[in-house]
Structures are given as C-alpha cells and as structure tokens.
Design brief:
With 223 residues, the protein is mostly beta strands. It has one domain: Lipocalin. It is built from three helices and twelve strands, in the order αββββββααββββββ. The chain has an eight-stranded antiparallel β-barrel with strand order 1-4-5-7-8-9-10-12. The longest helix has 13 residues.
C-alpha cells in the first residue's frame, strides 16, 4: 500500500511537468544511503552502520538549457529502510564486517521505533528542492527542505551533474545532525553510541521520458 502511494505521488507530480523536461529515474542504477558513525568515549568498540533506502520514489524535472529551473523531490519509505545489509555497508563505505544478524535486527527495530524515527507515525522521509543554483566549479547547489521524523529543516546540498549512457546522473552527499530532527543518538550503556552526525549520499540516474504514462514506479524492496 505504501509503495502504491509513493508511486501515485510520482505520477501526480510528474504530470505538472512538460514531457520535454520530465526525466524517468532508473532505480536499478540509483541509490540513497546513509552512514551512521560511531560516537561516545568507547566508540572504538562499536560499529559504523550503513542504511540504504529500500523503497523510494523521485521526481526529477530538468532542462539542460536552464539548470536553475530544475526541480527534485524525493520520498523514502521509513519502514523500508535496510540497515547493514551487504549493499548498505558497501554503498556507505564502511567495514563489510558489521554486526551479526541478531544485532542488526535489534538495531533496526530500535531505529524504526517511536524512540527514534517513529516510522509508524512518520512513514515518509522527504526532500523537496526550492532552488537549484550553479556553482562556480560547474556543480549544483540544491536548496530545499528535508523532513525526517515529521520535522522539516532547510538544507543545502552540493551535487554533481554528469551525462552517462544517454541520461543524466545527479550525485552528492551532505551531513545532518540527528538531534535537529528530534532524534537522540542510540547509546549502549551510555558509553558506546551512534554519532549525532549522519552522512547521506545519493546517486540518481535518470533518462528523458518519451512517454510520462510509461514511467517506472519507485524502487520496491521486492524488486
């Protein structure tokens, strides 16, 4: 049901764009991942964690002749976040030897609980760009609002744009403070905990959509 809602949002938003400027996201070649660092006095005892978006949708409206008119919106299903899978740890760039399966299940349950993301109450993580600016080095600066845990915060994201295989790749990364979104970093015995800093990286590959009615739906964890 949540996957259907995400896909419907994509189709409705895309209908606002002209076919010439609408892009179709290839979710098999795209990803959104977060890296949770270690913190606390005994951080050397803990693990860094990789969290990948298992179900997400994006709307990309783009005109190569007018980059500053671009619009990007992304929705991630919080209940479908996957932590410390092989893919998540590889994309996050952390040690492949992470916690065991039992620990992962416990960490994920805590992450989604009402003490952290409260995924049942706030099932969507969302980013909406408000302005796209060209940087002096040819990259992009995406200004917008990131909403996590029901709390919106203004963010500025540095991104790169490149042509690839007949399409476009928008990639970048930024950091957020968990406490800015009302989330207290998880602690273990009060000494080993996740850092307040969370790194988020993304790569979105999209191609011109000849027919908006044939858009792919958002990435589903069962795909």
């Amino acid at each position: 049901m949540l996957h259907y809602i995400l896909a419907t949002c994509v189709l409705m938003a895309s209908a606002l764009a002209t076919p010439q400027s609408a892009l179709e996201v290839d979710y098999a070649r795209s990803y959104i991942v977060a890296k949770a660092k270690k913190g606390g006095l005994l951080r050397f005892l803990g693990h860094e964690h990789g969290v990948v978006a298992g179900a997400w949708s994006a709307v990309v409206v783009f005109d190569e002749q007018d980059l500053e008119s671009a619009r990007i919106s992304v929705e991630v299903a919080a209940p479908e976040l996957l932590i410390d899978t092989v893919e998540a740890r590889a994309l996050a760039g952390v040690d492949p030897d992470g916690p065991n399966d039992e620990q992962v299940a416990e960490i994920r349950a805590t992450m989604l609980s009402d003490e952290q993301l409260d995924a049942e109450q706030f099932p969507l993580i969302r980013f909406d760009s408000s302005r796209v600016r060209l940087r002096g080095d040819g990259g992009l600066r995406l200004d917008g609002t990131l909403t996590i845990h029901g709390i919106p915060r203004v963010v500025a994201i540095d991104a790169a744009l490149e042509r690839r295989d007949g399409g476009y790749v928008v990639s970048g990364g930024f950091e957020i403070k968990l406490r800015d979104f009302g989330i207290e970093p998880v602690s273990m015995g009060g000494v080993v905990k996740v850092s307040n800093d969370l790194e988020i990286k993304f790569e979105i590959y999209a191609v011109p959509a000849d027919d908006p009615g044939e858009r792919r739906e958002g990435k589903d964890p069962q795909d």
